[in-house]
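User:
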Amino acid sequence: MTGTFTTPGPIHSVATIQRSTARWLTTGGVVAGPLFLAAGLAQGLTRDGFDFTRNAISQLALGGAGWVQTLSFVFTGALLIAGATGLRWTLRRGPAGRWAPALVGVFGLSFWAAAAFPADAGAGFPAGSPNATVMSGHGVAHMVAGMIGYVALCAAFVVLARPLATRGLRGWGVASRVMPVAVFAGFMASAASVLAFTASAGLGLLWLSAVMARLADAPGDH
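Assistant: Predicted structure:
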């Protein structure tokens, strides 16, 4: 007696599944920045007393509707940590494969810290708040978390320059080394203009999104 045997369906290799999973996780890092900035822009344009020339996006976590921004911090942190995991699977080998995901993960954790320790009120927000003269403990913790997060992000840009270049994206690699200078320049100018701080922080988020998207699409050692 003879019979015909058929396979139940396509068999996917472990490597294929890992690549697919890595792409999905990396998408978290790609969308995190744009979603965070879009949420901040929408709130800033609708919250009473908020002025982008005087107030930082972090202050949107204050007041009756502050829970929206707090959730934005938590959700963005989760997306960045997922993206860091995907980046680890994408890069896999070498110093960049170890350090870049860890640094992006620290950046993601800084958003959770920002949610746990809100910024101080001041500069008219929430509506009617006077200028703060002394920072509170949670305000200091918020500021320190942000500083640590962005230092980690800028370090990640430098680390990611090499894998970008090895994948044929030399211009991206050069820009990734220059980007920390632009981000820190904006932070230093924040004493004169809050908009400079917001712009530089947003620039860092958007560049991370762009870099992670390019690394996910570019051929390399997966």
